Amino acid sequence: MFEKILIANRGEIALRVIRACRELGIRTVAVYSETDRDSLHVRFADEHICIGPAPASESYLAVPRIIAAAEITDAEAIHPGYGFLAENAHFAEVCESCNLRFIGPDPSVISKMGDKLTSRAIAKQAGVPVLPGGDGPVNSMEEARAAARLIGYPVILKASGGGGGRGMRIAHTEAALAKAFTTASSEAKVAFKSSEVYVEKYVEKGRHVEVQVLGDQKGNIIHLGERDCSSQRRYQKLVEESPAPQVPTKVQRRLCEAAVRCAKAVGYQSAGTVEFLLAPSGDFYFLEMNTRIQVEHPVTEMVTGVDLVAEQIRIAAGETLRPRQKDILQQGHAIECRINAEDPANNFSPHPGRLETYHAPGGFGVRVDSHAYTGYRIPPNYDSLIAKLIVHAPTRPEAIIRMRRALDEFVIEGVRTTIPFHQRIMNHPIFTEGRVHTGYVEEILAQFSTDRAYSPGEAA
Length: 460
Ligand code: MV4
Description:
Radius of gyration: 22 Å
Number of domains: 3
Bound molecules: ligand MV4
CATH architecture of the largest domain: 2-Layer Sandwich
Low-confidence stretches: 455-460
Largest sheet: 8 strands, antiparallel
CATH superfamily of the largest domain: ATP-grasp fold, B domain
Shape: globular
Helix content: 25-40%
Structural class: alpha+beta
């Protein structure tokens, strides 16, 4: 096992990794930017080292600075968390060439899954259903039009280098395709330095269901069940849960088996997630594979009892996967709400600032993963996550009741938060009845703003 790990991240996920390391008897090194001096990950790590100023490009994304920090502190491995350098194949390669173990899959696997056309081809080859279209890039408006005619409208344009919804545009008609093509390619060019896009059939009112997998360096691969992440706004997830509600057992089993086939096809090791779109018909399609630990991993941990971060570390150290597929059971139901410093009444605009009060809920079945404390200042430079509130209960209705109770108990003063919006979701029939799909949050939101407009007190 490793003696010392450097964590190339900040916030709650840096703390999450430090906690796993403590239990494994591994010493930790925190890296931080000048603005994160007073962060808990700095205080809770065994060692800490400043790597630069607030802008991520000069600190958490600065490969040479992170490598230097690992060399100075004699760390043996680097955990990238999520975001920042977590899915950067170049970084993973530099780590390995500097004799630092990258806690994640091989650089070549990150590259393959990072290219959406390649990952789609791998899934298809593995016998996993993919959506019609997308067998190659479209290099002009004419090619896009021809592809869309074959597929039939509505279609979606996706950036090959993209993922997570960036560089995506939907076209319902041929008239709308030209603009979609232009904006998708130029967005892709700016965001991913490649304007390459492809066309796929667009499935409306689908559900975003993803499967957690774990693979070791010896080729053992297991799944840990699925999560429903349909509660999103502009591709930002708000609520995640496991198991996915209202999915027939047979569909659920086929989804999980398909995820394992994808992981096997690419020679996956470490923790990963295979994303699917589950259509109203019950058919599902591969969307993409995320080669990192995800924000929403705790819901899977709560229902399976597996510490995913500890497993990631053990796997990177060369250990054989300990949990066996037959031992993995989904017990009860877990829900996570992302509490962000954003104003839901003002288009979810970021609301950084000082937490005048921070009181987290607790009690039976409640878990809070957070780096926040009273007096902590949410900096404007990074994502606005304050806390992940996770509840676990024997059944979904009980988990919802527990989440309402925990949200009521949460006191955050000084910044606007997404708590009121979560309270609304937890009481909305679409959510409580499990009839979620990728468009329902925006529908609730339209309702939310209409209500406010008709409420003179709040509007003022
Ligand atoms: C789709 C889709 C429907 N049809 N592809 C979004 C993020 C990325 N992982 C892939 N995504 C989607 N791809 C086809 N062919 C639906 C989504 C999607 C989505 C779309 C609109 C609004 C919210 C969404 C949430 C999750 C997934």
